[in-house]
Amino acid sequence: MSSPVHRFRPGRTRRAFTLVEAMVVVVLVGILAALALPLYQKIQAKANETHFVNELRVATQSIERYAMEKGEWPPDGSGGWPSEMEEYLPPPDRWNLPTPIGGQWRWSREDGFEASLRVIGMERGLGHVTEIDRLLDDGDLTHGVFRGDATQLVYVLQK
After folding, report:
1. How far apart are CA 129 and CA 106, in angstroms?
2. 98 beta partners
3. What's the CA gap between 100 and 50, in Å, rounded?
4. pLDDT per residue over 97-154, tens digit each?
């Protein structure tokens, strides 16, 4: 009777992966990872841009709701959000955290604008911000309702 277990017999060699074959597999996996990483980063950047635009719309709607109910824009945020806006911003603690593109949200009535929403201290390059401007405005950060430079972004609600 023969046993179903195959045993190693002396004089016979077992077939295994050679070092060269293993290295080829490692190199192929590395090439695939190198091809996939830029695509992943592009998708992640697009998701952050879309998330930022959605948060900007939520904040803008909250500010406009405040203005409709009170008959005027909220007071200047003095480097943040006025306390009067807490009941209008869902959820209130979210707006003191960094934005999806980095930096902090600020409400402002200065620099010649009656009402503007700002992002101060962003971490993204202007290339990503230009893409956001294309979603919101005209793709040119020097004019329009969405403006910016290396120090801040400004979404103008009223000039």
Report:
1. 17
2. 104
3. 9
4. 999 988 999 998 888 889 999 998 876 667 778 888 888 888 888 888 998 887 889 9
Q: With contact defined as beta carbons under 8 Å apart, do 101 and 85 qualify?
A: no
Whether residue 56 contacts residue 117, with contact meaning beta carbons closer than 8 Å, is answered with yes
DSSP calls for the chain: ---SS----TT-PPP---HHHHHHHHHHHHHHHHHHHHHHHHHHHHHHHHHHHHHHHHHHHHHHHHHHHHSSPPPP-SSS--GGGTTTSSSGGGGGSBPTTSSEEEEE--TT-SEEEEEES--S-HHHHHHHHHHHS-S-TTSSSEEE-SSEEEEEEE-
Structure tokens at 114: 């009656």
Tokens representing residue 101 in the block: 């593109």
Q: What is the pTM of this model?
A: 0.77
